[in-house]
């Protein structure tokens, strides 16, 4: 059975809800899931995972959540070869080019770890609506198919 680990940061509750949707979909797909708020964990959380998932928000002009700063900086130093990763971002389209930029930044960090991208990044404006839930379920399905 695959072990999926989700790390998230949430200011308004939107990204926490998104991480819960992902957790439920992974559980339904047969994975064992551990989900942690980034303030309660560190980068070695992914050491024994098969699937490594980040759920992050972006604020301001493409700013990474302050809670994720240390985790983000330390992620490239991890050897995650043989693992699959996925990233989900929430943001606000009002920020134009900076919409969900933190999610894109995490993809770049994961690329330095040796992990393989398991699904395209999902970007959600604010909270998850029905279409977003469907996209998250597809995201989980694609990740599980890579295991």
From TrEMBL:
One MF annotation (Gene Ontology) recorded for this entry: oxidoreductase activity, acting on NAD(P)H
Cofactor requirement: FMN
Domain of life, source organism: Bacteria
Pfam family, one: Flavodoxin_1
Keyword Electron transport listed: yes
Keywords, comma-separated and alphabetical: Electron transport, Flavoprotein, FMN, Transport
Species per Swiss-Prot/TrEMBL record: Vagococcus allomyrinae
Lineage: Bacteria, Bacillati, Bacillota, Bacilli, Lactobacillales
Protein known as: Flavodoxin
Biological role stated in the UniProt entry: Low-potential electron donor to a number of redox enzymes.
Residues covered by the Flavodoxin-like domain: 4-144
Family statement drawn from the similarity comment of this UniProt entry: Belongs to the flavodoxin family.
InterPro entries given in the database record: Flav_short (IPR010087), Flavdoxin-like (IPR001094), Flavodoxin (IPR050619), Flavodoxin/NO_synth (IPR008254), Flavoprotein-like_sf (IPR029039)
PROSITE patterns assigned to the protein according to its UniProt record, in alphabetical order: FLAVODOXIN_LIKE
